[in-house]
């Protein structure tokens, strides 16, 4: 299996622009997670899906952030409008549904908002 | 929510030395994972170890769930072991809570 795939790997954009990050989970995994890593806050969960349905979005910082999972093999995280404080590395992870299942992480997208 | 503490925060080793990294957590867990974040930022799964002991080459890990800690052992360290080591756990915190809570990490630097 190719593992969790994320694109783009790097994104540089100007403040106010829309940014869309993409993720393809491991085939057969029915949980998908979006995490964000910053120097100040470390790694923190933004939102996760089960069978394409958002379960917990309490980590989404504000309404400028939205996430979708239209099917089992694709998810997007969108920021509109982007701000410099959104600069971070965004990771996508997936897992099987069994309780306590191991999570597998993608390579991350490094976002820089100028 | 569950708290995760890692120690030491920073560690400098001479190549060939051994080391032990520790992870303490505040509640019962059903998932504990160790990751290595390499200098390129990628999170590499090292161990999935909610309890017991596992070994993989020069690395091994032990989790004592009843005492709420886990240890990661690195033997005969190499410069390629440099990076940040994260412990992440998932507690029994109710229905629908599948997130991993990460510690702040141990930054390891192995010098030749």
Give the SSE map.
The complex is a heterodimer of chains A (114) and B (112).
Chain A: E1 5-7, E2 10-13, E3 19-24, E4 31-38, E5 42-50, E6 53-56, E7 65-71, E8 74-79, E9 88-95, E10 104-105, E11 109-113
Parallel strand pairs in A: 2-11
Antiparallel strand pairs in A: 1-3, 3-8, 4-5, 4-9, 5-6, 7-8, 9-10, 9-11
Chain B: E1 4-7, E2 10-14, E3 19-25, E4 29-37, E5 43-48, E6 52-56, E7 59-64, E8 69-74, E9 83-91, E10 101-102, E11 106-111
Structure description:
- The complex is a heterodimer of chains A (114) and B (112).
- Chain A is mainly beta and 114 residues long.
- Chain A is built from no helices and eleven strands.
- In chain A, a hairpin with a 3-residue loop joins strand 4 and strand 5.
- The radius of gyration of chain A is 13 Å and the shape is globular.
- Chain A starts with a strand and ends with a strand.
- The relative contact order of chain A is 0.34.
- The model of chain A has no long low-confidence stretch (mean pLDDT 94).
- Chain B is mostly beta strands and 112 residues long.
- Helix content of chain B is 0%, strand content 58%.
- In chain B, the strands form two sheets. In chain B, strands 2, 4, 5, 9, 10 and 11 form a six-stranded mixed β-sheet that branches. A five-stranded antiparallel β-sheet of chain B has the order 1-3-8-7-6, with no helix packed on it.
- Chain B starts with a strand and ends with a strand.
- The model of chain B has no long low-confidence stretch (mean pLDDT 92).
- The chains are: A mainly beta (114), B mainly beta (112).
- At the A-B interface, strand 5, strand 9 and strand 10 of A face strand 4, strand 5 and strand 9 of B.
């Amino acid at each position: 299996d190719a593992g969790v795939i994320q694109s783009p790997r790097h994104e540089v954009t100007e403040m106010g622009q829309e940014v869309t990050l993409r993720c393809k989970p491991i085939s057969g995994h029915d949980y998908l997670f979006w995490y964000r890593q910053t120097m100040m806050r470390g790694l923190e969960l933004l939102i996760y899906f089960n069978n394409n349905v958002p379960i917990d979005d309490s980590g989404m910082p504000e309404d400028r952030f939205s996430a979708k999972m239209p099917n089992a093999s694709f998810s997007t995280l969108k920021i509109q409008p982007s701000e410099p404080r959104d600069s971070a590395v965004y990771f996508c992870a997936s897992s099987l549904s069994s309780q306590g299942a191991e999570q597998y992480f993608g390579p991350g997208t490094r976002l820089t908002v100028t | 929510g569950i708290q995760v503490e890692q120690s030491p925060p920073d560690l400098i080793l001479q190549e060939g030395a051994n080391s032990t990294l520790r992870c303490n957590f505040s509640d019962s867990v059903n998932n504990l994972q160790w990751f290595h974040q390499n200098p390129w930022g990628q999170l590499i799964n090292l161990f999935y170890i909610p309890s017991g002991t596992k070994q993989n080459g020069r690395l091994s890990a032990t989790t004592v769930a009843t005492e709420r800690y886990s240890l990661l052992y690195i033997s005969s360290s190499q410069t390629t072991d440099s990076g940040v080591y994260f412990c992440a756990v998932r507690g029994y915190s109710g229905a629908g809570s599948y997130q991993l809570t990460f510690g702040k990490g141990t930054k390891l630097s192995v010098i030749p």
